[in-house]
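Lecture notes, unit on protein representations.

Consider one protein chain, 285 amino acids long.
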Amino acid sequence: MYWSNYHSHCTFCDGRSTMEEFVVCAISKGIKKYGFSSHAPLPFSTKWNMEERNFPHYESEFYRLKEKYNDQIELYFGLEVDYIHNCSNVKNDFFRDKSFDYLIGSLHYLDKLPDGGFWCIDGNFEEFNKGLHLLYGGDIQFATRRFFELTSEMIKIGGFDIVGHFDKISFNACHCPEFDMTSRWYNQLVGDTLQLVKDNGLIIELNTKSLLDKGITYPHQQFYSLIKELEIPVVVNSDCHHLPNVIIGFDQAFKTLQDIGFKTMHQLCYGKWKAVEFNELGLID
């Protein structure tokens, strides 16, 4: 039995510990397959994305650790790539001459604000609410539809393996009185976008980052049955930035999936994604 985690951050972006500290921690937690997915460089600077000038050091440190810990853990080289309409995606020049084991496609930003920056849907609620009113007149349904419209654009462009934190807009949207995760319009949006995930042969991560403190995953647990019905491949990731969160919520998430009827989840095996059996105690060799 073992765990895996393909969504992790280190000090090359906004993670709080070094690559090697995460590797040592992962080994101690029973992880067999561990992937680094620092936030990819963007055409503008942020407080959490890797600077392009640091990418060669990120790459060289990864391969140093891969060789050093080769007999203890399988390490995989990736990035989490922001999709920003007409600005950033996996087709950007930065990615053309580089090789990765996998890539995660995610949305953290939507449209451009009056000051020229982009509206971040993953920050504090005060900033989220400010952008919501500047761009969409405070209409959370409008903004949510835009989020899934852009997610659909990202999926159609492709070039990545895993859809990251699929419904992350709910992180802040849930604080808006007009937002109802059980509403028909929202479930239709989610269903249509999940169908697109399936049609494009992508893996969807079940992101456990907020499971213990907020009781939710991304996508929300209410959509697990639909994901199973659509037969979309899944992988459980923790999106860890801190060492204690390397396998946070995994036992609970694995049990929930097992109870719903999932039998397998996808894992990297010799460079290809394959279905691997699991139970509530972990993945099965």
